[in-house]
Amino acid sequence: MAHHLAVFPGSFDPMTFGHLDVIRRGRRLFDELVVAVGRNPGKDQLFTSDERVDLARRLAEKLVRDEPEGATVRVESFSGLTVDFASSVGAAALLRGIRNLSDLQYEIQQAVTNRQVAGLETAFVVAGQSFAYTSSSLIRQITALGRDLTQLESMVPPLVIEALLKKKQARHPVLERLLSQREE
Questions:
Q1: Mean pLDDT of all residues belonging to the chain
Q2: 140 in the same domain as 118
Q3: Which of 140, 149, 160, 170 could form a disulfide with 156 if both were Cys (CB 3.0 to 4.6 A apart)?
Q4: For position 183, what pLDDT does the model report?
């Protein structure tokens, strides 16, 4: 019997409840799920690769503990092309979450390219209604501009809020840039 492994790639900067929803749904569709934390040197990121992997791993482990039914989940970092990473772990498909029509248009283009270039299929899950407008970039903006990070409780887990608070207190350059752009 075939073992169906899917890769759920992303920057996860930071991981949101929407990302966890995609993981939860993917666990019902595949035998194994690899959450692939991408390293993009051209992107200005709030959390280091190691921090993002650590947060993703801790959140995925909690999800699996709380909901033991479903596929195993492991978290790995990667750099380079997603299709190359997916091939290296023997993935049958990429798993992607769709929040809205803009996501769908972009993701279909990527899926067609990935299938043509690497013969890799993409499985889409539609985000729950409460996650349709949550994005990591929105979380970073609220962190930079907001005074009280408890307003993020419906969007990210407490572990992420703690990590965001530390970045804010340390006046991380990404947050400071967002703050200065707002003031201009």
A1: 93
A2: no
A3: 160
A4: 63
Q: What is the CA radius of gyration of the chain?
A: 17
79 contacts 180 by C-beta, under 8 angstroms? no
**DSSP code of residue 152:** G
pTM, whole model, 2 decimals? 0.94
> What sign for the dihedral angle of Cα 130, 138, 56, 42?
positive
In the chain, the number of structural domains is: 2
Rounded Cα distance, 56 and 141, in Å: 20
Cα 45 to Cα 41: distance, rounded to the nearest angstrom = 9
> Which phi and psi angles does 93 have, rounded to 5°?
-160, 160
Query: 76: closest CA among 52, 42, 45, 41?
Result: 52
Tell whether 79 and 162 lie within a shared domain. Answer: no
Same domain, 25 and 116: yes
The crossing angle, in degrees rounded to 10, of helices 158-169 and 136-145 is 50
Lowest mean pLDDT segment, chosen from 56-60, 82-86, 106-110, 126-130: 126-130
Nearest to 33 by CA among 95, 110, 83: 95
Tell me if 157 sits within 8 A of 57, measured CB to CB.
no
